Amino acid sequence: MPIAKAKRAGAERGNVAHGLARSRQQAERRGRIAEWFAATLLVAKGYRILARRQRGPYGEIDLIAARGRRIAFVEVKQRRSTEEAASAVSATQASRLADAAERWLWRNPRYRDFEVGLDAVLLGPRMWPRHIENALNSW
Length: 139
Known about the structure:
Elements: H1 3-44, E1 48-56, E2 59-67, E3 70-78, H2 82-87, H3 91-107, E4 115-123, E5 130-132
Parallel strand pairs: 3-4
Antiparallel strand pairs: 1-2, 2-3, 4-5
């Protein structure tokens, strides 16, 4: 393979990798914005945000919020419509969220006696976010 052709091929691979990194960055940014909208909705409903993006061995909890004696572990989903967002939540995600919530509660004993909810906030473009309490409890 001529050197010029090899350089072009390497540059194209680099552009593809750069494009994937940019795509991930854009997805990360959209996710942060969606979580901000979700947190704003929860605060408007009287919740206090305890934590955002809690990462652990069982996965990530997007938001942890409390209101009264209820603590909500919230999965935030943004898609083209709230129906698509709702269908994007899987049983596997619900199980991971439950495991991560249990681990978080053991690390934060103050909240162990609270009513626990595995909630979802669904977002679509040009729509108000929809908070569904106990959306993931039934999984």
